[in-house]
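Same chain as my last thread, 358 residues:
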Amino acid sequence: MSDALRTTEARALPGIPADVPSKILQKILEAARECVLVISSDLRITDSNVPAAVAFGREGLDLDGRRLSEVIRDLDLHEAFQRALREQNSSDIRLKLNSGHRHFDVHVAPIELDGLPHAVGFFYETTQIDKLEMVRQEFLSNISHELRTPLTSILAFVETLEDGALDDRENNHRFLGVIRRNAERMKMLIDDISELSMIESGKVSIDVRAVKLAPAVADVMTALSSRASERGVTLENNVAEGASVRVDSIRLEQMLTNLIDNAIKFNRQDGIVAVSHESQADRDLISVRDTGEGIMPEHVGRIFERFYRADRARTREVGGTGLGLAIVKHLARLHGGDVTVISTLGVGTTFTIELPLA
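reply #2:
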């Protein structure tokens, strides 16, 4: 920190009493978690704190003495500092750095140091808050869409029945069937949202014990066999008879059901869904492989996000709530494990549940 700031009277900053020693002011700035830059009238950095050096000091760049334009290239920020220096006006701006990956709320105010005009900028990082807000907005948009589609269908067929179709024996049961299917779709969505919310809030407990894997896979495949038959998909249980994993049996069934059901939905006609197991030194691997079209590389990194659709048109065709993979990932992590995906276009996709041995 420069000698100018060390000798500055506390009155240089608004709200600081004149009798506060400058060394206290110095310690306050050094202790601030926010990035702080002090700029001189020639737009050079005269002082900065450690958070600023970490945020803006590329490749060990020493900030003090540098022109502001060397450190941060942003027209709005430069204009804010110029207003503080020339017009003695404070201002607030939004700043995005590193191609928009880091966000800051910046407050720039005039300050007098040793009788010379300076400007001080306080940078409050909002990157995580902005990301959470984006996730919230996307979640609300998606859930509104997912609920609106079946609800629109339900209302349309109810109106049709009310307008006289109730007495149409040829069609009234068909209309009621459509209403039931859409109501069940809404119930599934609400159930999945509730389940995911409980898992994320830590309200779901698990009972981990040794579970025979082959029979567990067989039970899930039996439950999904009719759906597989409709698409001509062959289900293969390649798990050795004696294989066991340490897992909550109910949650294992839930994870397998979501993964195998997805593999059936997004498979080719007459494709294969195979489940296998591998035991390594510190973990068990349960793999669900399909022979579908695969997932585009740009989608793989987001496939476990709630409501994320790699192929929206195909998803509407085959159905689903869009929360299955998110639930699988959270359940795997609840066991101290994880779930990963490898996909090759034109060949297929493999999801692997990793579970710790102990």
